[in-house]
Design brief:
63% of the residues lie in helices and 6% in strands. By secondary structure, the protein is mainly α. A hairpin with a 2-residue loop joins strand 2 and strand 3.
């Protein structure tokens, strides 16, 4: 068989490429040809039209929306979460074989008209967005994936402005009248940061309704985050969903064929932008703004046991599925609060996300006999992945021995998050690991949180593996995935 696949995760950093690698190995092991398009943060490695036309089946391993999905119309399709492609790629390839066998004529459907191709194709097998909840999650994750680079660039530049200049210089200087380096950093960073809400809203709407959703989404996000409305991150999220829903409703209106060419350039943007903007200003904005102010005030007032409990919860969520839905909820929570200048949860989230790979790297180095050869090799790469805040570096270990590894990861990350919050460590950057440690408010306390979480992870996993250690012959489970570099 010839298979084409698209992999995409919300951050576009690790899962996207790990899923591509796993699918390539599984397809080759089954005797198939495969070409994978990675839609990651570095851009899109686009499949050619010839590769798509020749494919017997298509695999979408995506937690964020697949771009230009219409290219694959008429092809037998399998849709799975990106985590499943990483952990059970052989099953995904087997499903692709099954849908191709059920539709032997679909491979030639690409040469027919789009309508005929769509009619000829079978329904996608086990789509990730077959439920309303799954669809909403994918829309939100698509918006987050486009938003994160703005948060990263803006947050780090703003932090560097305060690092190089005093508060008065950074906040009061007019860079257009009197040029100074800290003021320049602040101006550029704050401009990038101001786009967080509009980009989130625009690409949530894009995931729902394709390109017509971008204009009302971005405008709605701008209105939501304006000083007059003040609905912030939550308001932008609602504006994106509202914009996408408005476009979907407008598409249901029947129009004469002679007017259809005007719909995407005139009718849709004009009507949807007015509707979304009016609702945000008149109806929705103020209640969301009040909720945002309440949440921000509550988080700023956390101290003592309450702050530690929040850190423990966020830390446990980061380690629970290592880049999956629960992890992304905690991460998105931390990122969203940066826009409200609440940066302690982000510090806890990043510390907790670094400790799973670091803890397993430490455990495999100290007690290598408890791990097989592939895990020991993965442990060497896990040092770098953990230091870079790539939690997915723990996946090869968890896939091989989930019942003993995952509880250890949760324990260590919960400790890291709790210690970080206990010392009120703050961090305005949403990614970077040790490379942004200069932006941390209390470096020693932050390092203590990471070291404590790493040690707890290593100790717990060693204890659990030692309690019921398998024989050397059976140590590596037959279904174990190879290590990911």
């Amino acid at each position: 068989m010839k298979i084409v696949a698209v992999t995409s995760c919300p951050t576009g950093v690790a899962h996207t490429y790990m899923a591509a690698e796993a699918l390539e190995r599984a397809a080759k092991a089954a005797g198939h040809e495969i070409s994978v398009e990675t839609q990651g943060s570095a851009g899109v490695d686009m499949l050619s039209a010839d590769e798509i036309a020749a494919a017997d089946a298509v695999v979408f391993a995506a937690d964020a929306g697949v771009r230009e999905r219409e290219r694959f119309a008429g092809k037998p399709t399998v849709e799975v979460p990106v985590g499943r492609a990483i952990n059970r790629p052989a099953e995904v390839i087997a499903e692709a074989e099954a849908v191709a066998a059920e539709a032997p004529v679909a491979a030639g459907a690409a040469d027919a008209s789009p309508a005929a191709a769509t009619a000829a194709a079978p329904a996608a097998r086990a789509p990730a967005t077959s439920t309303k909840g799954g669809a909403v999650r994918q829309w939100l994750m698509t918006g987050v994936s486009y938003m994160i680079p703005f948060v990263t660039a803006g947050g780090i530049l703003i932090a560097l402005a305060f690092l190089f200049g005093d508060t008065l210089t950074v906040t009061e200087a007019n860079v257009y009248e009197e040029l100074s380096f800290p003021a320049l950093l602040m101006e550029i960073g704050s401009t990038a940061f101001s786009m967080i809400g509009p980009i989130l809203a625009g690409f949530i709407a894009y995931a729902m309704a394709d390109r017509p959703g971008i204009v009302p989404g971005i405008v709605g996000g701008l209105i939501a985050t304006s000083a007059e409305v003040g609905a912030g991150f939550l308001g932008a999220l609602v504006a994106g969903l509202l914009a996408g829903a408005t476009i979907l409703l407008l598409r249901r209106i029947p129009f004469p064929a002679s007017l259809r060419s005007l719909l995407p350039v005139l009718f849709y943007p004009l009507v949807s932008t007015f509707v979304v903007g009016a609702l945000m200003i008149v109806v929705i904005g103020e209640p969301i703004a009040a909720a945002t102010r309440g949440l921000t005030s509550w988080l700023e007032g956390l101290s003592g046991a309450n702050a530690v409990l929040l850190g423990i919860l966020l830390g446990a969520m980061m380690a629970f599925d290592m880049g999956g839905p629960v992890n992304k909820v905690a991460y998105t929570f931390g990122v969203g609060l940066i826009a409200s200048d609440v940066t302690a949860p982000m510090a806890a989230v990043m510390a907790a996300g670094m400790t799973p790979p670091l803890g397993l790297a430490l455990a495999s180095a100290l007690r290598g006999r408890l791990f097989d050869e592939s895990e020991r090799e993965a442990g060497k790469a896990a040092w770098v992945m953990g230091a870079s805040f790539i939690t997915e570096g723990a996946i090869p270990f968890a896939a091989a021995d989930p019942l003993r590894v995952i509880p250890a990861l949760i324990a260590g990350s919960a400790v890291a998050g709790g210690v970080s919050m206990a010392f009120d460590v703050t961090l305005p950057a949403p990614h970077g690991g040790v490379f942004v440690i200069g932006l941390v408010s209390n470096v020693l306390a932050y390092l203590l949180a990471i070291v404590a979480g790493t040690v707890v992870t290593a100790v717990v996993v060693v204890i659990l593996k030692s309690l019921h250690r398998p024989t050397d012959a059976a140590q590596a489970p037959p279904t174990q995935e190879p290590a990911h570099a």
